[in-house]
Amino acid sequence: MSLPLPVSSRFRALCTGLALSATLPALPVSAADKPLDKAAVEQIVRDYLLANPEILLEAMEALEKKQQAEGDKAVTEALKSNRTALEQSAMSPVGGNPKGDVTLVEFFDYNCGYCKRTHPERSAAVKGDGKVRIVYKEFPILAPSSKEAAKAALAANKQGKYEAFHTALMTHEGRLDSDAIRATAKEVGLDLKKLEQDMGDPAIEAEIKANMELARKLNIRGTPGFVIGDTVVPGAIETDQFIALFNATRAVNTKKSG
């Protein structure tokens, strides 16, 4: 592992503290009473790191572990405090088995290639299980047409055709534009006039903004992103991985209720 230069101020301070504590020789009282100047301190640190370069790797690994632990703790707390918004938002469409004993929350963008490739994997896992409830979180971050598609999908929910429209958009080949969105809506039997009207509902805009904020709190920075129980999955996974997460979450839920 190589360390990019220049070293950050935070890391330089860490190395300075380590080097000084480990290498400063015992000074005569008269010398120790004199503070070291900046150049002398930097020379001590430089000499120490040149002689012991492995400490850079050790310090970076420790820093990464600390940051990871802090990040995991923040996400865990975010899951606890935002569970209702994640799983019970009145504006978030629900699919799969609405009475399922495991909830899968999915963040996605209709222009996301990884989302499109993961869609059949997720669908197969949910269908095979039969007891998974899906909460759809529109997360349009890739293009203006992503947001237009997200608004259209949420508007389609008002006509009871969300999942049909969602699937059609996910399986659409090529990048979406206004014409493709409306053509897809027509194909699944949506009333286009009502769809256009409902897309302007302020509640739809509010839902998308709320999803953006939830994703930020959960450190979901791209698409797709999944929340299954207490696990956040920031990226695409395959059918067997979904199944394993469903079973693990179900086991945890059973243990909690017991």
Can you tell me about this structure?
This protein is α+β, with helices and mostly antiparallel strands. The chain has 12 helices and 5 strands. 26% of the residues are buried. The radius of gyration is 26 Å and the shape is elongated. The N terminus is likely disordered. It has a 5-stranded mixed β-sheet with strand order 1-3-2-4-5.
Feature tags:
258 residues, alpha+beta, 5-stranded mixed β-sheet, 12 helices, 5 strands, 9% strand, elongated
Query: First CA to last CA: what distance?
Result: 46 Å
Q: Please write the string of helix (H) and strand (E) elements.
A: HHHHHEEHEHHHHHEEH
What's the total count of β strands? 5
Judging from the principal axes of the Cα atoms, what is the shape?
Answer: elongated
Q: Show unreliable segments.
A: 1-11, 18-29
**What about the largest sheet?**
5 strands, mixed
Structural class by SSE content: alpha+beta
Spatially, the strands of the biggest sheet line up as 1-3-2-4-5
* Rg result: 26 Å
Helix content: 55-70%
Count the helices. How many?
A: 12
The share of residues in extended strands comes to 5-15%
Give the overall average pLDDT: 86
Layout of helices and strands:
Layout (H helix, E strand, L loop, with lengths): L8 H15 L5 H4 L5 H14 L2 H28 L1 H6 L5 E3 L5 E7 L4 H17 L2 E7 L5 H14 L4 H9 L7 H10 L4 H8 L2 H16 L7 E4 L2 E3 L5 H19 L1
Parallel strand pairs: 2-3
Antiparallel strand pairs: 1-3, 2-4, 4-5
Helix pairs in contact: 1-3, 6-12, 7-8, 7-10
Summarize the structure.
Helix 6 (113-129) packs across helix 12 (239-257) and helix 7 runs antiparallel to helix 8. The chain is α+β, with helices and mostly antiparallel strands and 258 residues long. The radius of gyration is 26 Å and the shape is elongated.
